[in-house]
Each structure stands twice: as structure tokens, then as C-alpha cells.
Amino acid sequence: MMQFNIIKYAPIIEKARTSFWFVPSFMVFASMVLAGCAVYIDALIIDNFELKIPFIYGIDIDAIRTLLATIAGAMITVTSIAFSITIVALTLASSQFGPRLLRNFMMDTGTQVVLGSFISNFLYCILVFCAISFQEPYTFKPGLTVIIAVMMTCLSVGVLIYFIHHVAKSIQADVVIDDVYQELQSGIENLFPSVEKQQDPAKINDPIDFTQRINHVNVSAKCSGYIETIDHQALLTLAAANEVLIECRFSPGDFVVQDSVIAVVHSDNLVNEKVVKQTSALFVLGAYRTPVQDPEFAIHQLVEIALRALSPGINDPYSAITCIDKLNSVLCGLTNRVFPAKEHYDQAGMLRLVCKVLTFTDIASAAFEQIRQQANNNVAVTIRLLESLHNLMMFAQNDEQQHFIISQTKKIEEQQNKQPLAKDDTQVINSKVALIYSAFK
Predict the structure, then answer these.
(1) Which candidate, 166, 154, 15, places its Cα nearest to that of 82?
(2) Which residue, 178, 289, 341, 391, has most beta carbons within 10 Å?
């Protein structure tokens, strides 16, 4: 049940993480609670027990009002400046790295906390200012509330300094690429367990040919969009409970058109309409792709950075080479990972779920194909591609992975044979190609 809930609400959590409102809203609510508690302590507890400290509670009330008004005005000014800097950073990132990378900047917790800190400080001062303006019998002598306001202001000054440094650092190409790489690595670890963690497969009966079943009911998409998540475990449980077989036609990241068949329910008996509705509910569709169950999402982000870097307008081969290195690291790690099974069986060994799954070739092709095509005239990037393939060869575990390396090497060799290159460049490329071929002899 816990796994079902996590998958079900994963798109909502993803939207909250990539928004500028969630963390600031939480911090604003916390500042309201803090203001209420501070006023309560000053007005009731300290006043009733006469615990006032002269140095703190001897400040003139008019001076306190002036101080709070000054802090509030300064905080709202700094907030507007911070928002302006953020928008400028987003504009630069969109033009240099691509509009899809805006998600990573919006997901940055540091920026969200900075904006939330300024707004929270502003709101705290406003609430306290209103509280100390009450007339009899609600008047009180503020002390703790003022100390907290001053402390929050000092903290905001430090946050402002951090924010300027953070923004300057976050728009650097290497930092952006590494952030995407770290997110990709995290997704790979969640979606593809290591060989050491693989459990022994359960004993199953003879495979069932579901095409021979009597009834086949199509499950149609309610709207057009990208498949964000599919709860495979819930589908397996649903199929086992109703003694049916569910065949998934799409995988997370695929785009489906409204009323297209996303799954088929096979059964020897009549299929309950409730099963069809429950099956449809386990496919979450959205307007755009998310990395929750889509490992190609972050790969496409790195590829987009590399393609923009190789474009004539930017002409930054070093960033493209960095992307290739990160992608190569991911693929080398994938060679020792367990890919999701296409067929899933219940505890009795009956085939209940057939999924569309990604293979190593699918992910590796998404990582290399477009860069290889775009790097047709760039010798440095082509050499790094060959070096990456040779490095990947050292980690290859099976024929599929070796076939991909050979296939990509042949395509690069064929492309470069058509290019008018210098003799030394041709020799270097040929030596890299020969090194890859020699490893498979």
C-alpha cells in the first residue's frame, strides 16, 4: 500500500518540488505561527510573571514601530530584487541551456528558501506591527517579538549574501550539467537495482499465451498527454485479484493521444467494467514528462545541453564533452544494473502483467545518437565519443551492450570517412576505432 501511494502521488510531489510557491508558502505559514507565539509570550506569560528584562523591554514603543516598519520596507525591497535576479538567471539559463532546464532552476531548494526567508521576515514584521498597535486592554510591551525580528533580519542579510553567490554559481555550465547528472544518477538507482540487490526470481508455470484468451477489453486514454507514472505493482495486484492479464502498450515518458489504447485486459471470462476503470486510474498522464519513472528524461536534458553547445550560435565543445563524460558514466553504471522485467507473475506463478520496458540499447541510443549526428564536423567531440565507447566497452556485460558499442563505432567511422579531415585527425580517429574493434577479437 505504501508503494502504491508513493507512485500515485509522485507527480504531485514533483510539481511541488519544481515550484516557487511550496517552500515559501510553508515558511510564510511558519512565520505567522512564530509571530503569534511571540506575541502570546510577550502579552501573557512575560507580562503576568513580570519577567521583563529592562534592556529589552525598556525600548520606546514608537521606536519599535519605526524599526519594524523599516525592516518590513527593506525586506519587501530585497524580495523584489531577489525575484528580479531570479528571473534574469532563468532567462540566461533558458537561452544558453534550453527552456527544459528551467525546471532544474525552479527545483533549486536554495533559491526557494531565500525567497521564503525574505517574505517570511516581511510578514512577521507586519503582524507584530499590527499587534503592538492594539488599544487597551490588549496593549502589551513587546520584547521577545522585537528580538526575533532583529534576528530574522540579521539572518536575511546572510541569506542575501548566500543568494548572490548561489545564483552566480548556479548558472555555470559545469554546475548545471552536474546537477542534471546527479538527478539522473538518483533516478537510475531508484529504477534499476544493482545486480547484488536482485532477488532470486520466483518459480513460475509455463508461459501463457494471452492472445488465446476469449475476451480482450481495451483501456483507452482519457486525455492526450505524456505518461508520468504507471503503478505496476498495483496493476499486478489488480490482475491477480480479478484473474485477468493486463498488457501495457506504453511506458512512462511516452506520449499518448486521447482515446488511444494504453492497455488491454485479457480474460477467459467477462471483464468487469470496474477493472477497466481501475486499470485506467493507474496510468497518470500529464502535460509534460517527469523523471519519476522516466530515465530518459534527464538523459534528454544532458543531450539538449550538448546539442546547444555544438550549435554554431554557441560553439562550446567543452560543455558538449562534459555532457558526453557524464552520459558515459551513467551508461557504464547501467551495465551492472537489472532492467525491469517485461512479464510479471502472481504468487501462483500465473502471468498477470506484461509491460513495455526500456532496454539498455534504448537508453544508450538516446544518450549517443543525436550527439553523434550533431558532432559530424567536430573532431574533438568525435574523439571523445570514441573514447567513451571504448571506456563503455570495458564495462560491457552482455551481447546487447557490445552490439551497441560496435554499432555506434561503425556509424562514427562511416560519418568520418565522408569528412575532409586533416591527415593527423584521421589517424587519431582511426586509431580510436581500431582500439575498440580489437577488444572484441
Answers:
(1) 166
(2) 289
Q: What is the DSSP string of 275-326?
A: HHHHHHHTEEEESS--SSS-THHHHHHHHHHHHHHHSTTT--HHHHHHHHHH
Residue 203 confidence (pLDDT): 40
- pLDDT value of residue 212: 58
Average pLDDT, integer, range 113-136: 89
Query: Which of 101, 70, 104, 105 lies closest to 87 in space, CA to CA?
Result: 105
Instruction: Calculate ∠ Cα 336-338-341, nearest 5°.
Output: 155
pLDDT of residue 52: 58
How many angstroms separate the CA atoms of 106 and 96, rounded?
Answer: 16
Q: Would you state the cell numbers that stand for residue 419, as one nine-digit string?
A: 569528412
Determine if the peptide bond prior to 312 is cis (ω within 30°): no
**How many other C-beta atoms are found inside a 10 Å radius of the C-beta of residue 321?**
21
The residues, ordered by sequence, that sit 6+ positions from 169 with a Cβ below 8 Å of its Cβ are 175
- For residue 411, CA distances in Å to 88, 372, 385, 406 come to 41, 9, 11, 9
Cβ atoms < 10 Å from Cβ of 410: 13
Q: Which residues contact 20 (CB under 8 A, 6 or more apart)?
A: 106, 111, 112, 115
CA angle 249, 404, 312 (to 5 degrees): 95
Set of cell numbers at residue 19: 515550484
pTM above 0.85, yes or no: no
Q: d(Cα 176, Cα 178) in Å, to the nearest integer?
A: 5
CA distance 394 to 391: 5
* C-beta of residue 24 within 8 angstroms of C-beta of residue 112: yes
pLDDT in tens, 402-428: 999 999 999 998 888 887 888 888 888
Integer Cα distance of 235 and 242 in angstroms: 11
Q: What are the distances in angstroms from CA 236 to CA 10, 128, 209, 242, 346?
A: 19, 56, 17, 10, 7
CA atoms of 188 and 139, how far apart (whole Å)? 59
